[in-house]
Design goal:
heterodimer; A: alpha+beta; Collagenase (Catalytic Domain); eight-stranded antiparallel β-barrel; four-stranded mixed sheet; 14 helices; 14 strands; B: alpha+beta; Lipocalin; 3 domains; eight-stranded antiparallel beta barrel; 25 strands; about 25% helix
Chain lengths: ~475, ~450
């Protein structure tokens, strides 16, 4: 046709006219495609039962969430051996999800926030997803739309660690959705040097990751993972867990972990107007509701084998913390040291480093404005009963072995004697002041009671 | 101008030819309608079994399993299985659905007994983590089965479905009312119990074919494998297949040849208290009972055992008095030098045709090892000749102490190897001297 155009222009008109006619008329189709009967348009159908109704009423209507618990090979890996969940596990799992995750965000972030961001599909899988390297996958999210939860059949609802693991996955995935909508402060990416992030995270031990300032090994895989792992850990494992983890690191790790914590808290406030601390509390209470933490009595936990080894008064903070006979003896000893010897008691450590020994470690400084200080160590043989009641022997001082700490102890001994007598003549027991540790405290407070007198007790910080 | 006309003509031809308006269907209905029709028929077939179906499945890694399944029209399926003692009596209820994937497919879509086999958690079924016993819970209809179903969905009595993922075959057979009643009244449990108890009382059973050849029959309830073992050219030969328990005994799930037919089932005859093999050509064969393994000891040597432990006591079951007195002399020879024999083993290597007689003895508080290494030859009917090849230092040192049993007998004579059945000690292995029939001893096969 190009050839004809070159030759003469007038020929184009009838040619195109004719072609146009042919094209227009030749392909006319009178019959409309019949779409009245297309079976299975709109997805699978089955007779609904109470599970389907529960899901519909609890999740689909209020949140527009579809829950797939019936096996559908196209919703999951086609190349893995997986099984559908047991029916009796579906509602309990969803209920935990709702209590711990949905309700808490609804409460603290509001309707609009949560309903906008919530993934629209939850897929439950009965078995774990076994990876070729021997590990298993327990949760996955796809682009903020879909969350897959595995291992539903193996989940033991009574075991808190298993609930924690599942909820950690959920909070992790939801964290991704949040930062994909509003990015976190880029400063987060500068806390740890880029070289500390590695695709080879599976070979990083938890201890190595913590030391570098990551909450988990997986957090060291990428910036985004780091951010959402920090969120999930602070929410699900909780503040007390995080604080303990931080306290076990060297200064560098501590500083990095705290910096990340601060940025997470700030992110929730500035980007979503959510008080992260309140959200943490809600999640904690929700977890307590579905799987309460087994409380370790302080009489077990403050010991050579326990989490804490030390109960201590720092910066002379005795005031208000000594009650009854403790005030009458230890309180008076602290005053006498000041009044009679001219020294101020800075700090006093009750150290339970060995199963049968208590060490009182004092630090004094002269009340003359100088920088000097004196340390004094006094030991007591300790007898601890099955129920945790402690009996102490007479004070023991090692002036030769302990050097200055020993000779200083000898110097103070007479002044301190009333408290030593009190310790040696009574039985004591360690207790949590409120019956259990405070989940949000950075430093836990413990108490030691005179067993037969609830009014006589001292409370102080717990240390490691 | 000519060219233009050519172009136009070709254009017309092309356009008219390509726009053939013919909407006549090859089939009478659209594909969607036909698929839905097939699914409906499939549902009709499954639901038509008012007494349920008896199903078997041969997993790829873990033997065979049987089920009783009843499907309703509300996507619910009830099930029993021979998987374990609970699944045989507690009816489970779960969900199923029929779906058009590439073929009409039956999906057991919430967890039920059939998923136990495919569960990738090895602790559930004893399989490997990641794959379980390698089985299926999504099954499709083959074209031929679909054709039959579409013809008359009600009348189907047998149906084979193929697993979509691992291609295991689910064979369904309509149950009778009597069978359903039996299933719901612990019938499967009783049937399994009967066979397991019979096995405990009769550990050695066999089949004898027309030619008189004997086949040891072993049914392992843990691996769900049925094995025939026989002697072929003086070698133990075996063939295994999957089986599943049923109300009638053990159903053989793939081919196991016997008497020019295939064994289809081994059933328990309550009246006669015996097992009977049913063949696919309608024949039957009694399963016979023996007090000892069917495969001769000299054939089983190297296959089921390779070490014979000689108890170091006295007058052990099956020992002749001649052997006993000679062996006590050997022990006394050791005691005389302040040593005691702790252990004595005949260790065979059938590939290398060697046998080590290994004796452990205490001297003071130290354990020493004296090893006499033999080469051996064996005739077709199991007569052994042992030739002393080497001795280790300790054997050399104490050789003469063993003279009553070694130099005087084992090194010179030829021996028959056989089983010896003892009520207290079970199946032992005996050595009998051909030249000195009064010299007989036994040991424990390991």
């Amino acid at each position: 046709m190009i050839y004809t155009m070159k030759k003469s222009n007038w020929l184009q008109i009838p040619l195109f006219f004719m072609l146009g006619c042919v094209l227009l008329f030749s392909c006319r189709k009178d019959t409309a495609v019949d779409i009245s009967d297309l079976p299975n348009l709109g997805g699978d159908t089955w007779s609904k039962n109470n599970i389907d109704e529960w899901i519909h009423d609890t999740l689909t209507v209020p949140f527009n969430i579809e829950v797939k618990y019936k096996f559908d090979e196209f919703e999951q890996s086609l190349t893995r051996d997986l099984t559908p969940p047991k029916e009796e596990r579906v509602i309990p799992v969803l209920r935990i999800l709702k209590t711990v995750w949905m309700d808490t965000y609804m409460e603290n972030g509001g309707d609009k926030f949560f309903k906008t961001l919530v993934p629209k599909q939850i897929v439950l899988v009965g078995s774990a997803s076994y990876n070729s390297n021997g590990t298993i996958t327990i949760g996955e999210a796809e682009g903020g739309k879909k969350v897959l939860l595995y291992e539903i059949n193996d989940l033991d609802f009574k075991k808190r660690d298993q609930i924690i693991r599942m909820m950690h996955t959920v909070e992790h995935e939801f964290g991704h959705i949040m930062h994909q909508n509003k990015l976190y402060d880029p400063a987060f990416k500068t806390i740890c040097p880029g070289g500390d992030y590695t695709a080879n995270w599976a070979n990083v031990s938890a201890a190595q990751a913590h030391a570098l300032g990551f909450v988990t090994p997986y957090a060291s895989s990428a910036y985004d993972e780091d951010f959402v792992e920090t969120i999930a850990t602070l929410l699900v494992e909780g503040q007390a867990y995080f604080d303990h983890l931080v306290s076990e690191q060297a200064a560098d790790g501590q500083q990095k972990l705290r910096a990340k914590e601060d940025l997470v808290v700030e992110y929730f406030k500035t980007k979503w107007d959510i008080d992260f601390r309140e959200l943490q509390k809600s999640v904690y209470l929700a977890l307590e509701e579905v799987a309460p933490v087994p409380v370790v009595p302080l009489s077990d936990d403050l010991s050579a084998m326990g989490t804490y080894h030390t109960l201590y008064f720092g910066n002379g903070d005795f005031a208000g913390n000594l009650h009854g006979n403790f005030d009458q003896t230890l309180g008076k000893v602290v005053s006498a040291i000041h009044n009679n010897l001219g020294d101020i008691a800075d700090s006093l450590y009750f150290r339970f480093k060995n199963a049968d020994t208590l060490l009182l470690h004092w630090r004094m400084h002269p009340d003359d404005g100088s920088n000097s200080y004196y340390l004094a160590d006094i030991y007591f043989h300790m007898n601890k009963s099955e129920s945790g009641e402690m009996k102490f022997g007479a004070p023991i001082i090692f002036p030769n072995r302990d050097g200055y700490n020993g000779s200083n102890a000898s110097y103070y001994k007479n002044t301190m004697q009333p408290f030593f007598d009190y310790l040696s003549n009574n039985t004591f027991i360690a207790k949590w002041p409120n019956g259990k540790p405070d989940p949000f405290a950075q430093i836990q407070i413990g108490a030691i009671y005179q067993t037969d007198d609830d009014a006589s007790y001292m409370q102080a910080r717990l240390g490691y | 101008m000519k060219r233009i006309l050519q172009c136009v003509l070709i254009g017309f031809l092309l356009i008219f030819a390509s726009c053939k308006k013919d909407d006549t269907r090859v089939f009478s209905e659209s594909a969607d309608v036909r698929v839905q029709q097939a699914l409906n028929n499939f549902q009709t077939t499954l639901g038509s079994a008012t007494d349920g179906w008896i199903a078997t499945i041969a997993t790829k890694e873990g033997g065979g399993y049987s089920f009783w399944m009843q499907f309703d029209d509300q996507n619910r399926v009830k099930m029993l299985s021979d998987f374990d003692s609970v699944t045989t009596v507690d009816v489970s209820e779960a969900s199923f659905r029929l779906k058009a994937l590439q073929q009409p497919t039956l999906i057991f879509d919430t967890y039920s007994y059939i998923h136990l086999l495919a569960d990738p958690n090895g602790r559930v079924n004893g399989g490997s983590n990641g794959t379980g016993l390698v089985s299926d819970f999504e099954f499709y209809l083959t074209d031929s089965a679909l054709e039959k179903i579409n013809k008359d969905p009600q009348s189907i009595t047998d149906l084979n479905l193929i697993g979509r993922y691992n291609e295991t075959v689910l064979k369904l057979k309509k149950a009778t009312t009597a069978e359903k009643t039996a299933y719901l009244n612990r019938g499967l449990y009783s049937s399994i119990e009967q066979i397991l108890l019979y096995q405990i009382d009769h550990p050695f059973v066999y089949l004898k074919d027309k030619a008189g050849k004997v086949y040891q029959v072993t049914a392992d309830p843990a691996t769900k494998k049925l094995t025939l073992t026989w002697v072929d050219e003086d070698k133990a030969t075996y063939k295994s297949c999957d089986f599943a328990f049923s109300l009638y005994g053990m159903e053989v799930l793939d081919s196991l040849a016997f008497n020019e037919a295939l064994i289809s089932r081994i059933t328990f005859d309550k009246k006669e208290t015996k097992l009977v093999a049913q063949l696919d050509n309608g024949g039957i064969a009694d399963v016979l009972v023996s007090d000892r393994p069917i495969i001769p000891a000299y054939v089983a040597l190297g296959a089921t055992f390779s070490t014979i432990d000689l108890p170091v006591g006295s007058n052990y079951a099956g020992w002749s008095s001649d052997f006993n007195s000679r062996f006590q002399k050997v022990k006394a020879n050791f005691v005389a030098t302040g040593r005691t024999i702790q252990n004595a083993d005949f260790v065979f290597n059938v590939d290398a045709k060697t046998m080590d007689f290994v004796v452990l003895y205490l001297s003071g508080t130290t354990l020493f090892n004296a090893t006499f290494s033999y080469n051996y030859t064996m005739t077709n009917d199991g007569v052994f000749k042992f030739n002393l090849n080497t001795m280790n230092g300790n054997a050399d040192l104490h050789e003469d102490k063993f003279d009553p049993i070694l130099a005087d007998r084992l090194n010179k004579d030829t021996f028959h190897l056989d089983y010896y059945v003892d009520d207290n000690n079970g199946i032992l292995v005996s050595f009998t001297s051909v030249e000195h029939p009064e010299f007989v001893f036994t040991g424990i096969s390991q």
